[in-house]
Amino acid sequence: MIQKHEQKDKHHIDNMKEKKSVELERKEALMRIIVGIISGIILYVWMYLVAVFFAINWVWVLISGKKIKEMVDISESWATQVYYFSIYMTFKTNNRPFPFSDLKSNAFNLK
Q1: Residues in contact with 68: Cβ distance below 8 Å, sequence separation at least 6, in sequence order
Q2: Nearest Cα to 28, choosing from 86, 88, 107?
Q3: Residue 64 falls within a domain, yes or no?
Q4: Residue 67: which of 75, 59, 78 has the closest Cα?
Q5: Pick from 28, 29, 66, 105: most CB atoms within 10 A?
Q6: Is 39 exposed, middle or buried (0-12, 13-18, 19+ CB in 10 A)?
Q7: Could you tell me the pTM of the whole model?
Q8: Cα angle 34, 86, 40; round to 5
Q9: 96: in domain
Q10: Is residue 59, in this structure, part of any structural domain at all?
Q11: Is 22 inside any structural domain?
């Protein structure tokens, strides 16, 4: 009798945890709208800056034979943030992208 009661309590606790988990997922899904708009705008504007860096770096490499490392690093940082934005927006993770969390470091480990 006691064992049956304990099983019933465990089942009830499991149901409560599942309902809470579902509710958290719903809230995070709604949060993705806000995050998508704000982060999307920031990444979109940043993309134009990266395009300018690309053009400058391309001309510089043609003239000097060397790339401008700082511009490459900023461009790589943008690509990293786009990656983390994408995996958040596609529900791969619930870790929010920039600016809702810190800038992530190099996701690609390129040199």
Answers
A1: 53, 56, 57, 60
A2: 88
A3: yes
A4: 59
A5: 28
A6: buried
A7: 0.73
A8: 40
A9: no
A10: yes
A11: yes
Question: Per-residue pLDDT tens for 9-34?
Answer: 666 566 667 777 888 889 999 999 99
Q: pLDDT tens for residues 43-67? A: 999 999 999 999 999 999 999 999 9
Inter-helix orientation angle 69-89/2-64, to 10°? 150
Nearest to 45 by CA among 99, 111, 104: 99
- The range of the structural domain enclosing residue 9 comes to 2-89
d(CA 27, CA 79): 27
Rounded-to-integer distance, Cα 31 and Cα 93, Å = 13
How crowded is residue 104: how many other Cβ atoms within 10 Å of its Cβ?
15
Number of domains in the chain: 1
